[in-house]
Design goal:
With 323 residues, this protein is mainly α. It has two domains: 46 residues; 212 residues, MetI-like (MetI-like fold). It contains 13 helices and seven strands. The strands form three sheets. It has a three-stranded antiparallel β-sheet with strand order 1-2-3. It has a two-stranded antiparallel sheet with strand order 4-5. Helix 4 packs across helix 7 and helix 7 packs antiparallel against helix 9. It is globular and about 70 Å long. The relative contact order is 0.12.
């Protein structure tokens, strides 16, 4: 007979450490794979960027100047310097001033400042989407009837055209005045960002909260655990492998929503406004028009990567996630 102390944690032949007190199994090799896996992801990302540059330059060199036209429709773009600048020209333009005026800051600095502005607004939208999405998931998981009635409307909400929705939100927000509080234009952008962010979070959280096996929920009932202990000790830990990808997708959606909302509402200072402003200057400075596009791409990567850092804090609960 073994004592409870020796039976609390033991190592299985499969390499899993079983903690009977907590009722969970953690892979003993997960920590050793984190470093090589992360390094491999960065390497494949660099290879993907290199392949994209090679394809861009190869098509520019080999493609027709008027593009590929089939049946009167242009399938592939023109290869002129106005339509497709060289990659090195676009990178070099980032190091030059925004304008020819004296004291003009470098282009990369203006892009970085605009990205920080949009990132802050998108972060607020992501936090609002997180609260709303997890709240809806909790309600739908708790009452199946609410899930049947609410989930179709949540899915249907994502079919509303964002470009048409953004001006309405700005118009409604401008009428909000409670005491000394006045609605700011950036709040409309953050609200639209949360509108796109909450959907994947709600669906992912719901799938995760429903993921525990029946045998585990019945075990909690055997221990006379109520709803909240079961939620905190079983359902929330089990939902982590589903929730982390949903949070990353929600962060990317929040950035997209913020950029589109900046364009639709005319908010100054963000990367969305620079996209419109520099696009109007593309005929005289085509490389400059691509700078905010690079900024928006980097912004999405930073947002998703920042949320992915949560995976390091929750690595003990990610045994169900594919690696």
């Amino acid at each position: 007979m073994t004592s409870p102390a020796t039976d609390t944690a033991r190592t299985q032949p499969t390499g899993e450490t079983v903690d009977k007190g907590r009722g969970s199994a953690r892979p003993a090799r997960a920590r050793t794979r984190t470093g090589p896996h992360a390094l491999s992801a960065w390497a494949w990302g660099a290879v993907g960027i290199l392949l994209l540059v090679i394809v861009w330059e190869a098509y520019k060199f080999l493609g027709p100047s008027d593009g590929v036209v089939i049946g009167g429709a242009r399938i592939l773009p023109r290869t002129t310097d106005l339509a497709m600048p060289h990659v090195w020209d676009m990178i070099g333009r980032l190091l030059e001033p925004v304008t020819r005026a004296d004291g003009s800051p470098p282009l990369w600095g203006a892009i970085a400042l605009a990205c920080l502005t949009t990132l802050g607004i998108a972060a607020v939208g992501w936090l609002v989407g997180l609260v709303v999405g997890v709240g809806l998931a909790l309600v739908m998981q708790r009452w199946r009837l609410v899930e049947w009635g609410l989930l179709p409307w949540i899915i249907l909400s994502q079919t509303v055209p964002l470009i048409a929705f953004a001006p309405i939100v700005k118009s409604w927000g401008s009428r909000v005045s409670i005491g000394g509080f006045e609605w700011q234009d950036w709040m409309s952008v953050a609200l639209i960002a949360s509108y796109l962010a909450f959907f994947p979070i709600a669906v992912g959280a719901l799938r995760g909260l429903q993921s525990p096996d029946r045998i585990h929920t019945e075990l909690m009932h055997t221990y006379a655990a109520g709803y909240w202990p079961t939620l905190l000790r079983l359902r929330f830990p089990a939902s982590v492998p589903y929730l982390l990808p949903a949070l990353r997708l929600g962060a990317a959606n929040a950035v997209i929503g913020a950029v589109v909302a900046e364009v639709s509402t005319g908010l100054q200072g963000g990367i969305g406004r620079l996209l419109i402003q520099f696009a109007g200057q593309a005929s005289g400075d085509p490389s400059k028009a691509w700078a905010p596009i690079f900024g928006a791409i980097a912004l999405g990567l930073v947002a998703a990567g920042s949320v992915a850092m949560l995976g390091l804090l929750l690595k003990d609960y990610r045994r169900g996630e594919a690696t």
